[in-house]
Fold this sequence. Notes:
The radius of gyration is 32 Å and the shape is rod-shaped. The strands form four sheets. Strands 4-3-5-14-6 form a five-stranded mixed beta sheet, covered by helices on one side. The chain has a four-stranded mixed beta sheet with strand order 8-11-7-12. Helix 1 crosses helix 3, helix 1 packs across helix 4 and helix 2 packs across helix 3. The model has no long low-confidence stretch (mean pLDDT 87). It starts with a helix and ends with a helix. The chain is an alpha+beta fold. It contains ten helices and 14 strands.
Amino acid sequence: MDKFDGIRAFTQVVVSGGFAAAARDMGLSRSAVNKLVIALENDLGVQLLHRSTRVVTPTETGLAFYERCVEILASLEEAERSLTQLQKEPKGRLRINAPMSFGIMHLSPALANFLVQYPDLQVELTLSDRFVDPIEEGFDITVRIAKPQASASLIVHTLAPAQRVLCASSTYLEAHNIPTHPNELRHHSCLHYGQLAFENQWTLIGPDGEHTFSVKGTLCSNNGEVLRDAAVRGLGITLLPRFIVEPELQQGKLQVVLPDYHPTELSIYVIYPVNRHLSTKVRLLVDFLQQQFGSH
């Protein structure tokens, strides 16, 4: 027996003045209420009620217990109301980390809408294209664009696929041989993430299978918008998430290269430490972001 069920049944019997009335008020049968009270008395080892065919009254011990029970149940109800209110109107600070381009272009307007719904929250958004350790650096939620990896210390929620596209400006393609196969990219200026001192690995999948190769270019950066702008200026071919280059593709400033070949797919996902799993504000934000980006 749940002791709180017995306490609720006992206090209702005292308030209602009998088992039949208490049963009606609780939406239970009379025998169910009686069993709950008897089980409570047996568990406590005391008689709480005087029972007669006409009336039920608390014993002296039962009256003292009833007064304490009323206080306990009132405190429990207040705690439940407070929790419900917290779920509806979460308060406090949320520290969020996200990639620069995605943060500026898509996450920041979404967070503005989130804060309109929950004005008592304070969001601290840090945009950075470096890899961060959310536990070590104290972030409540981290947004990443990569292949999700399982971790015993982190919860992972995928928001949406991050389709990437190989593209360049018509100016660059007119000045160089337009590649017809991934192997030819070795001879092109490829604008890539990383460092100039290291070759970058690209993988493309097409009709003749998977191709992984090293690329070099005149510019590399840890920021997609920098690479996009360089590609628009005709400095080379770049491989970027479509959400970064879609406007330029639509406007004709960039065009797709090797349309029959596609890169391995990445995901936009959120991670947060396991100890944040029960946080109302974290859960609400994750649910909100899944609604915002899950259909894209």
